[in-house]
Design goal:
Blueprint (H helix, E strand, L loop, with lengths): L14 H4 L3 E4 H7 L4 H35 L3 H29 L1 H19 L5 H27 L7 H30 L1 H22 L4 H6 L4 H11 L10 E3 L20 H32 L4 H29 L6 H15 L4 H23 L11 H27 L7 H6 L1 H25 L9 E2 L1
Parallel strand pairs: 1-2
Antiparallel strand pairs: 1-3
Length: about 475
């Protein structure tokens, strides 16, 4: 093929300019590489920012008693403040994700980090109900848009066989942040006031945002899919594969996404095989979120009403969170190896455990450990569905796919406590509540099984098509 007419800037000819231009499949390069220090740094900084994402999201709940007393905020107003943050997260999940699919993952993640860091810090100066409502809403928008983009960026830099693994690792950061927000509040608020907790969280988040500004790369798949300047693509490629000696004269493709849509519309989430996949992802994520928020909201109260003391209830809830994260870590490699059918494992086990709690008489100590087991399995199942939310969408709409799924799931988080309140107020024996909760893992197991069947069928169809152009072939 004739040499392209593109020339590098400058009077002297570089080796890249003298070399024949190549057609480079960045998807193949990414999939053929082993996990290295570049991936470790990426996952580490992504996990770090999600620590403060989770910390900030849960912080308002732990500081609420202090704020209510000092600012004379009613219980109803406090509930509205909680809802403002959650509603903001619902809006941000699809608005910010859309921005990430337009201008890039890196600038959007960094922007969100700066915004929610600044707003967390400024919340310490709030002195009115209205101010808190506004700040929590805007803060929620930034927080809600952060996670789908973090998933997308990490998914797009690792081989297919590690995609669920990196999403799980990133979400471990969110769990850590959620877990430590309570102890940090107990440490700071009694001595320095509730404001100090927000000052601490905001400052730490802004420091982390500055680190992201210098360390976070842009997605290589995104750069190619959006036809960004070749010099920018070559620079990104050199960070993971310097031996390729990529240059601005080379041409780049994403070989495993040749039929991907170039621009996003909501209809893009239902094109082709996605018309079956997206509804099942949404339903599974929704029902899992409903279960997890029911457990976290009403779990300690249920334990107290079942004659366990408050310290035991709190300890059991904390232990379940830690064990749930461990269950998610245990599942991630199986999900990458055998596919989404692994996601059904924990829900299937959870069903008989919850039914046993609800209907089988047992000693108090056995009941406590069965509840801890059920809570652990519910959390592990949630990590499972999270790990595949953004995996199967093409690069050009991946952030939007994850964002819209998150928005749908947030509705489960909103109505979960409401449904719980209705059940607990219905007069039903408290212990039977657990058997009713078994509906959630049952639905999730069916969704995971359906997703596995759809993914398997799509892979067969893709294998029947001609293979994509290989790595660095001559054009």
């Amino acid at each position: 093929m004739d040499r392209t007419s593109e020339e590098t800037a400058g009077s002297e000819e570089t080796p890249n300019a003298r070399r024949e231009p190549r057609l480079i499949d960045v998807a193949q390069i990414i999939n053929d590489r082993k996990i290295g220090m570049f991936h470790v740094r990426l996952v580490t900084v992504s996990c770090l920012i999600t620590v403060f994402d989770g910390f900030d999201m849960m912080l308002i709940g732990f500081t609420a008693p202090y704020m209510r007393d000092e600012l004379a905020i009613s219980t109803m107003q406090m509930g509205n403040i909680f809802s403002a943050g959650m509603f903001g997260a619902m809006i941000g999940a699809f608005l910010i994700s859309n921005l990430g699919d337009r201008i890039g993952r890196r600038p959007t993640v960094v922007l969100c980090a700066y915004v929610f860091g600044a707003l967390t810090f400024l919340t310490g100066f709030a002195r009115s109900y209205e101010t808190l409502m506004l700040m929590r809403f805007i803060d929620g928008v930034a927080i809600g848009g952060m996670l789908p983009l973090a998933w997308a960026l990490n998914i797009e830099y690792v081989p297919d066989r590690f995609r669920s693994t990196v999403v799980t690792l990133v979400m471990i950061g969110y769990s850590i942040g959620s877990t430590v927000s309570g102890p940090v509040t107990v440490w700071l608020a009694p001595h320095f006031g509730w404001e100090a907790v927000f000052f601490f969280g905001g400052t730490a988040t802004l420091i982390c945002a500055a680190l992201l500004h210098f360390e976070l790369p842009e997605s290589l798949r995104f750069l190619v899919s959006k036809n960004r300047p070749r010099s920018q693509i070559a620079g990104a490629l050199k960070r993971i594969a310097p031996e390729i000696s990529a240059g601005p004269n080379d041409r780049y493709i994403v070989g495993d996404e040749t039929e991907a849509p170039k621009n996003f519309t909501v209809a893009s989430l239902f094109e082709g095989w996605l018309r079956w996949l997206t509804p099942l992802l949404w339903l599974g994520y929704f029902i899992s979120s409903l279960a997890i928020i029911f457990q976290s909201s009403w779990g300690p109260i249920l334990l107290e009403d079942l004659s366990f003391d408050r310290n035991t209830a709190a300890l059991a809830s904390s232990l379940s969170s830690i064990l749930g994260a461990g269950a998610g870590l245990s599942l991630m490699r199986f999900t990458d190896r055998i596919g989404p059918k692994a996601v059904a494992f924990y829900p299937v086990i959870t069903i008989p455990v919850l039914l046993a709690i609800g209907f089988a008489p047992m000693p108090q100590i056995a009941l406590l450990w069965m509840i801890i087991l059920a809570s652990t399995l519910i959390a592990g199942a949630h990590f499972g569905i999270l790990s595949i939310i953004g995996v199967y969408y093409p690069t050009t709409i991946r952030a939007n796919g994850s964002g819209w799924a998150t928005t749908v799931a947030k509705t489960g988080s909103v109505i979960g406590p409401i449904i719980g309140a209705a059940i607990l107020s219905s007069g039903m024996p408290l212990i039977h509540t657990f058997s009713l909760l078994a509906v959630c893992p049952a639905v999730l197991a069916l969704c995971a099984t359906g997703i596995a069947a759809i993914v398997k069928r799509n892979k067969k169809e893709q294998q029947q098509k001609p293979p994509a152009i290989g790595l660095a072939q001559q054009s």
